[in-house]
Design a protein that fits this description.
Length: about 325
């Protein structure tokens, strides 16, 4: 998956509280326009809450420096005790993105995969990037299968490679959302992005269900958070040593598609695409926002002059 990322630095008053060992780790956050990004953004918008959480974790590390612990939070990526590494990190560490097939091969043919990863390390590669697919990991609500990744992380660590993981809460040509999510979508199709003609996109969930308990009693944000927390719990001993970085994918094909430019016949390059804001949850959100600013007519529908899928910018209103 192509990745477009931006570094997110914590507020200065939080950064100064972090001990020296944690300054060498960071959390990469790729803001996702097709899936909710507020689960991580909210932390930076509430620095007092984040500071207290970080301080709590740091106290545990200071008081028990040799104890490995599990932290049900993505914060564990940036506050976990850093293990000493035998190699000195290069000025520009090189990371290589790996295919899902190679990651799976570590589970089926570990020795063959080991040889390939060892060759990468010998060429000067510092680490690798792998995708964590929601549809592959969570076959049933809150039941996670990490076997494939467990085998891969073990082999990568043994050959001296670091691993960056990219959480993919979307689908593509080879991957789908979890089957149970798609079943929920049959009962509530408005959980998917919808264009003005009513066409649904089942590659990812609409941001309209961020706070709607449409997923077996959980909201979309809760489902995303539960998976990342489960990852932290399952791989707590590897965080900071083998698994050194994490990000969130940008959605279908990772190209800011939103998904405003579908791969079917509705769109052709270089068309501008269309807004995907017509599911009933997003329409309700628009209506509520319009009411708050005293312009209720703004919430009657989406933009009327933004053009269609295949139009160019100069052809719009």
């Amino acid at each position: 998956m192509q990745s477009l990322r931006q570094r997110s630095s914590p507020p200065a008053h939080i950064a100064t509280q972090q001990p020296r060992w944690s300054q060498q780790l960071h959390l990469t956050v790729a803001h996702h326009v097709a899936i909710p990004r507020r689960s991580l953004q909210a932390a930076w918008q509430a620095p007092a809450a984040l500071a207290s959480t970080v301080e709590l974790v740091q106290q545990r590390v200071r008081h028990q420096p040799e104890q490995q612990f599990q932290q049900n939070s993505i914060v564990a990526f940036s506050t976990h005790r850093r293990l000493e590494e035998p190699e000195q990190q290069p000025a520009v560490p090189l990371f290589v993105s790996l295919s899902d097939e190679l990651c799976a091969a570590c589970h089926r043919q570990p020795e063959a995969a080991r040889g390939g990863l060892k060759a990468l390390h010998g060429l000067g590669v510092w680490g690798v990037v792998v995708n964590i697919w929601w549809g592959q990991v969570e076959a049933a609500p809150q039941q996670y299968d990490w076997a494939q990744y467990q085998a891969f992380f073990q082999v990568a660590g043994e050959v001296g490679l670091r691993v960056k993981v990219s959480f993919c809460f979307h689908g593509d040509e080879k991957h789908t959302l979890p089957a149970w999510v798609l079943e929920e979508g049959k009962q509530c199709p408005d959980m998917f992005f919808t264009d003005r003609a009513g066409c649904r996109n089942t590659e990812c969930l609409s941001v309209g269900v961020d706070h709607v308990p449409a997923l077996a009693g959980r909201t979309a944000l809760q489902a995303y958070t539960d998976l990342m927390a489960a990852f932290c719990d399952n791989f707590s001993e590897l965080l900071g040593s083998v698994v050194t970085d994490a990000d969130i994918g940008l959605g279908p094909r990772g190209e800011y598609r939103y998904p405003s430019t579908p791969l079917d016949s509705r769109w052709n390059f270089p068309g501008i695409g269309e807004f995907q804001c017509y599911d009933r949850f997003m329409v309700a959100s628009l209506s509520a926002a319009a009411q708050q600013v005293g312009q209720p007519h703004w919430g009657n529908s989406g933009p009327h002059d933004a053009g269609s899928y295949c139009q160019w910018p100069h052809q719009t209103g």
